[in-house]
Design goal:
Blueprint (H helix, E strand, L loop, with lengths): L2 H4 L8 H24 L5 H17 L11 H21 L4 H5 L7 H13 L1 H9 L5 H12 L4 H8 L3 H19 L18
Helix pairs in contact: 2-3, 2-4, 3-4, 3-6, 4-9, 8-9, 8-10, 9-10
């Protein structure tokens, strides 16, 4: 993925330009958004639906995107997080299977195959996301966006609606908790040089 493209801000000169800009945003971010959902679900149809819902929401609100408030990549991930939260809320309300399937476009065999490959590739990430359940939700979110999705600190802060300084503190705290959980008898001193770099 071209990271410069994924962060490009829409210019909205006219309808044709807006379509081209959205297409560029989609192409630059669709793989990362698909991976984000593949770490949360092993069901290809669910991954496809959540990814599609994210970009449907993005295209319907594209004109409201304000590049002064942050990158388009962070904006898309903010939408993806809200789509997933809505999905979880609906799932927890135990809607009937018929209601959940209503209006869904079934995947073609080749689409399902591609998503199964993507889901398989994200198996380690899904295991890590499951392992993060011991962390508070606020700490879990920063690890997911920075260490798994690859957002820069400023982008992750924008997606979460918090200050970059707050995000950095949560990230350091979350990484420390994960290190402690990974090595229960860690009497050894932690080497600060082993800390992953926080990209701003």
């Amino acid at each position: 993925m071209n990271s410069a493209q994924s962060r490009q801000a829409p210019q909205h000169s006219g309808p044709d330009d807006a379509v081209a800009e959205f297409e560029a945003l989609y192409r630059a971010n669709v793989a990362a958004v698909t991976a984000y959902f593949a770490r949360r679900s092993a069901e290809p149809q669910t991954v496809a639906d959540l990814t599609a819902d994210t970009f449907v929401q993005a295209i319907t609100s594209f004109a409201t995107f304000d590049p002064r408030k942050g990158t388009s990549r962070a904006w898309v991930f903010g939408i993806a997080r809200r789509i997933y939260a809505t999905h979880c809320q609906e799932h927890s309300q135990q809607r009937s299977r018929v209601e959940r399937l209503a209006g869904r476009r079934e995947l073609a065999p080749d689409e399902a195959g591609e998503l199964i490959d993507r889901i398989d590739a994200e198996r380690a990430g899904r295991a890590l996301v499951s392992g993060l359940t011991t962390l508070p939700a606020s700490d879990r979110a920063v690890i997911e966006l920075v260490d798994l999705a690859g957002l820069q600190a400023k982008e992750a802060a924008q997606a979460l609606g918090i200050a970059p300084g707050t995000l950095r503190m949560r990230l350091m705290r979350a990484r420390a908790r994960l290190r402690k959980a990974a090595s229960p008898d860690s009497g050894a001193q932690h080497d600060p040089s082993s800390e992953p770099e926080v990209r701003t």
